[in-house]
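Subject: Endonuclease structure
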Amino acid sequence: MENELLQSFLIITNQNVKADINRSIEVNYNNIDKYIESTKKFLNVTLTEDEYKLVFHDIEQRFSIKHSKGCAIFDDYDQLRDWYHEENIEDPYFWTRYKRYLEEFSSLNPKSIELLDQTTLPQIMNCLGNPTEEFEGIRLRRGLVIGDVQSGKTATYSGLICKAVDAGYKVVILLAGITESLRQQTQQRIDEGIVGLARTMNPILKTPETHRVGVGLDMKEVRATSLTTQAYDFIATNDNIVTSLASHKTVLLVIKKNVSVLNKLYNWLKNNNYDPSKGYIDCPLLLIDDEADNASLNTNKDETNPTKTNAKIRQICALFKNATYVGFTATPFANCFIDPDSVDSMKNADLFPENFMYVLPSPSTYIGAKKIFDEDGAFHRNVRFITDIEEPDYASDEYKDRASNDIDELNNGPFYYKHSKNWDGVFPKSLTHSIYCFFLANAIRDLRGDSRKPRSMLVNMSRFVKVQRVIKEHVEKIYNDFKSKIEFSFSGTDADKNLPLYKTLEELWNKHYSFIGNISIDRVLHKENLIKAIKDIKIVVVNGSKNSNKLDYKKNPSLRVIAVGGIALSRGLTLEGLLTSYFYRNTATFDVLMQMGRWFGYRPKYEDIFQIWTTMASARWYDEISKASEDLKEQLRKMFDQHLTPKDFGIKVRDNCEELQITASNKMRMSFDLNEQVSFYGNLHETPYISLNTEQNKKNVAQTKALAFQLWSQGYNFKKSGKGAYIVRDVPKSLISSFVGGIVCSKMNPSFNEEYIKDFIDDVNTIGLDYWDIVFQGGESETHFDIEGLEELTCAGRAIHIEHNAVVVSSRRRLLNTSAGKLALSEEQIAKAVSACKAKWEEEGSSIDRTIPSKAYFEHLPNRKPILIVMLIVPKPPKENEDEEQKLIKFRSDLGQSYIAAFAMGFPGVKGVDKAKHYKVNKVYYTQNLMDEPEELDDEDE
């Protein structure tokens, strides 16, 4: 389709969408297709797959961003968290101005801003401490907000600051990374979005200047005082400022996580504002820690002597009567491994997010690791593999000899991972090709009508500043040679097609951009269009050094740049309009690798042409990290569903890649290894832990009733077994799989994960599970099953208690006694299992005069049928004079006259555990699930 026709298609489709929105008709992710189909019929045209995607994402971007829900987990679910209400804020001065600023100047669409205003920020505000609440003593609330890399966390915490200040917070400290370039970028955004004034240095007169910016352009009263500026951190003579926090309406500081800066701030706060008679500063503090997994954590081996940065952050918080610490990060792996029980000599806990964790919603237009590096991801074709760098064998004697004796040869040879800081050798050809692709992508965007938009390319190959300068010089040579050839060798006629450079560009076009149907290669490779695309490109080095270049998008909103750098390109720094990334780094931790992914984010109108050049190994790592990240977020969502707290829930982080660490070793001192089975053969798996969320129990009871009804309606025979059970034989695994997929069990159950079990049952490689026995197990109580055909069964009666924020229906962490393994077996099968078990004990030299465990009746019977056991349990009332905790009282109240549904599933010993998922787990998980368990008791011992 020609570009003009495609633009008409977009205009007509957008008009139809807007018309429905104006008529209050909801436009969502699921009905975008109908608008596209309507325009296709109207214009009588067809769309290629890529054109269809382009139109779809354009509509999605403009009108209908679909967000996943944000959710929080808390330290106490019984406590009401509704102190913050927008209508109770007398003067929402800061948020009103910032919202208007977002609407006028940001790239966020109206729906995103509304979600931020009405849902996300109020939810986070209710996690914070109430700044106007009166209480005895001092209080520090600690929490963590988890987002995605390059997903708009800055807008979120800027909005949070605005609402917090409007609600009564008086002092805001924002820790903005560890580099000055990032701090300056953050200060600029705070000046524009909150303060309204910027103090900068006149480049000619070298004198400070103050001028209105951003929200301040409305010329209204300035109500915030910033004690830091874009030019200066809290350094030099700042600690000589004699002023009281109480004399200002709002005080803001944007500082680096630098020990000397933090120390200077601490001393100033204590000397000028601390009231010794009260023992605190009586001003509510909000401390926001951006990139909270970096430089803030206590990584010192001696817990009583924490790393200085960590200590200073805590000391600053401890000066205030009412303080809230909120960490923001996209890579929370390190934060998960903080010891929640750590207490140092200051009697002040580490920065573990004890009070809350909040997972930010993700817009559907966000392009993250899963969409790029998963082989089935929507943007996997945007990945380009670097295959022309040959790494030495670092373990070989030859390499070691060269590194010791021929270092000059290595420094002047081909580029490789472990180059020294003096490397100045031969660059790979793929770097040149990636730069050429950046030039082509610029031309494409110009021809699409986006000529005023900023463009950037990232080159991240070395951590050494000296080598970064060498890379910059090489990139400049590539750029100058290219520009010269276009200007002096190209003529703008068909004769250009015979030029070597044209043929190279044509080859790259055919390889990387041939799918773009609305723009021809002739237009892109035309001399005039190429010159326009590249003539204003700047090549700069961006790093943590004082000589680092600055990316000033305010002065040059159409900036086109190739940025060469290292750490400054890896944490927080935004590259606007990132089109091409050349990434060749050997960092080997989840968090650092993710933070280096500056290419994640939003790519409106150019999501089809951005490119990531990297190695196959790095791509594989990113794929693994995306799975670990999603797995971790899903755990947090389930924590919320089951009312589990940060301290009580054991967190596990997927660790299946031998080449990668989850985070730096000194951030994982409280971590443990876990190999979690994905084969359930040869054991009985139970649910003695029940979620405090009774809605999940109601769902499980409903699923149990539905299963029984389905069995009755399909003619299965319910055979009574003794006085306390009914057995249904030979049920196909499809019914079992469907049932397991419909129940929700507490994550506190160490071996019963309904999702893993369902996957195991459905796996084509799983054998021996085609037909099942189902046992509806009764017990000793006066309450009968409220299920048709099972009315004769009485429910089990169990005393219940709270453990790790879950209800436990057994004092032994077992749902069933040891005889449960015998259910549905013949006498012959039972004898065979007992004999095999004792033979094994004899072979091991163990005593055989002990109870046969329930596991034996599965482990030693490879040909038995698998079994599903369903129990309905009536909680016994508390004993006289027994005081129950509030959570248990509430659970009983919410449960009412209903009963608890619990399950067990046993699998024949077809084969052993032949594969496992590898995790790193935190201290809580280890304590709950990996420490030695008590021995199983025999029936008569109960």
